[in-house]
Amino acid sequence: MIEHDVIIIGGGLAGLSAAIGASKPNIDIAIISKLHPMRSHSVAAAGGINAAIAENDTWESHAEDTVKGSDYLADQDVAELICQAAPESIIEMEHFGTIFSRKENGKLANRPFGGHGKPRAYFAGDRTGLALMQTAYEQVLKHNITVYEEWMVLDLVIENNICSGVIVLELSTGVIHGIRAKSVIFTTGSIGQVYKRTSNALACTGDGMAIAYRNGIPLKDMEFIQFHPTTLYGTNLLITEAARGEGGYLLNNKGDRFMKQYAKEKMELAPRDITSRSIMSEIEKGNGFENKVIHLSLTHLDADYIRVRLPEVVEFSKTFAGVDATKDPIPIQPAQHYTMGGISTDISGSTIIKGVYAAGECGCISLHGANRLGGNSLLECLVFGRITGNNASDLAKVLSLNTFPENKISEWNDKINFLLKKNKGERTSTIRNEMKLVMDEQVGVFRNNSGLTIALDKIKELQIRYNNTFVDDKSTNFNYDLQSNIELGYMLDISETIVLSAINRKESRGAHSRTDYKKRDDENWLVHTLAYKTELGPRLEYIPVKLTNFEVKERTY
Q1: Residue 311: what pLDDT?
Q2: Which residues, other chains included, contact 101 with Cβ-Cβ below 8 Å and sequence gap of 6+?
Q3: Domains of the chain
Q4: How confident is the model at residue 252 (pLDDT cuts 50, 70, 90)?
Q5: Cβ contacts of residue 534 below 8 Å, gap of 6+?
C-alpha cells in the first residue's frame, strides 16, 4: 500500500501552497489531482490578488472592506489574520519569481477592484492566477513533492474519528488504490458545474466537499453562491473584474451607465453581488440587449493600453464572441463563479475529524461570508494554503499511521464493477443536464421559496434516478464516462445542501437575494449554516459569526 505523511487532494493554488507550507524535514508529502496541476482552475483567475502594500493603505482597511463586502457574515478574526499576512505573501511570491505587472517607476502595479476603498489588487496583466500557479508549481518541484497526476480521490478513510488516508482511482489504468496518510488536506476547488451557466472549468464538480460531507464533516454556508457580473455571453467565460477596474463601463440598451442607480459612489466597482443583481434587474426591466445581456464597454480607453493590461479580455472577446473589445462593447451576463461556503474548518484549517483539513474554495474558514470581494480568493489560497499545510505537517510529525481497513478498497471495487457491468438505465448526461437547468432557473441571482422548493424536489428526484444510471464505456483506462458518473453523485449531494440551506435562510444577505425576504435580518440570521449529511438529507445547524473590531451596520456603496 502507498504511504505518505501528508496528502493534499487538489493541485490548484491552494493545494500547491499547502504543499509548500507542509514541506519540512522528514515529512513525506504528496499531491493527488485528477488533472495536471497547471490545468487546475486557479489558472483562470485573472484580475488580481489583494494586499495592503501601498504606502497609503493598511491591513486594517483591507480587513474592514472584506468584512463589509461579506455583508458582515465573515468571521472577523479570519479576515484580520489573512489581511495581515497578505503583503508578505505577495512579496514572497514575487521573490520566488512571479512576474507581476509594474509601474513606470518599477514598483508593483495595482488596480481598483469592486468593494475596496483603495486600489490594492496586484496583478500580472489579466493572467494573475496563471502567473502565481507557475511560480508555486516550480516551488513544488523544487521541494521534490510527489504529484499523482490524473488520479481521482473517491473517498476518505476514517477509523475512530481519526483520518487513515484516502481511496483513489488511477484514471490511466482503472486501478483503485488505498493510500495511507497521517493527515489529509482538501483543496479541490469549486462546485460550479452544478450550474448550467458558470465560469468554472469542467473539473469543478465539488468532489472534495461531497467526500467530506459523506464522511460526517459539515458543509458551511452553502447557500452563498457568487455570480460573477461579467461573463461572456454564450460561453460564460470570465471577463475579469479588472476590465471595470481599468475603467470599463456597464451600459444598458439606452446607453446609460445604469450602475449609478444602484451604487451611486462605486458604480461599476460595487461588490459582485450588488453588480450582478443590478445587471439582472436591468435585463428584467427590458433594458438589456435582446432581453439577455448588458454591454461592457472599453471603447473609451486607449486601445494599446487595453491590449497590454487586458490581453485575455481582448483575445476571449474576439475568439468566442467575434468582438474587437477595443472598438465594440462586449456582451456580458452574470453566471455562477464562486462558492463562499464549503467544508467547515476552524481558523487552523482543521475539520471535526482529526487529521482532515481544507483550504481554498472547497473549504470555509468564513473569510468571504455572504459575498467575496474580487482579489481575495487567490489571497486565501496563498495565505491559508500555507497555514493549513504547516498545521497538517506539524500534526503528521506526532502521529503514527492509523489502521487502514482493506475492505474499503474492496467496497469501491465492487461499486465500480457493478456500474461497469450494467447495460441499461439512464445516462449520466441526462440527469446532469436536468440538475444544471433547475439550479440555473431556481437557485440563481434572485430566489424565492416557491422556486427553491421546486429545485429541492427536483434534486431529490434526480438523486433517486441517479441510482439507475449506467455508463456506455466499459474500458478501464481513462474512462471519462465513469468519472463523470461519479462526479454527478457528488454534485447532487452538493446541490441539495445549497438548496436546503437557501430555503431555510429567510433573509437577503450578500449573494443570497430572496424576493420574498428582501431585508437583511441581523437579529435572527447573523449566523453560519452547517449542513450535516443524514439518510433523510441535510440536517441544518447554526453557529454565531465571530465579531471582533468591525461594527455590523448598513452596507452601502
Answers
A1: 94
A2: 108, 109, 123, 124, 125, 309
A3: 2-224+338-398 (3.50.50.60), 228-335 (3.90.700.10), 407-540 (1.20.58.100)
A4: very high
A5: none
Report how far apart, in Å, the C-alpha atoms of 22 and of each of 63, 233, 391 are: 26, 41, 8
Q: Classify 104 as helix, strand or coil.
A: coil
Q: How far apart are CA 206 and CA 209, in angstroms?
A: 5
Locate all alpha helices (DSSP H) within 215-285, ordered by sequence: 242-245, 272-284
Nearest Cα to 158, choosing from 349, 345, 389, 405?
A: 405
Query: Which residue type is seen at 532?
Result: Y
| Torsion region of 407: left, alpha or beta (phi above 0 gives left; psi -120 to 50 gives alpha) | alpha
**Number of residues assigned to the chain:** 557
Reported as a pLDDT band with limits 50, 70 and 90, residue 234 is: very high
- CB proximity list for 276: less than 8 A, separation 6 or greater: 227, 228, 229, 334, 445, 511
- pLDDT above 90 (res 402): no
- In the block, residue with C-alpha cell 441526462: 430
**Of 272, 432, 447, 505, which one is the catalytic site residue?**
272
447 part of the active site: no
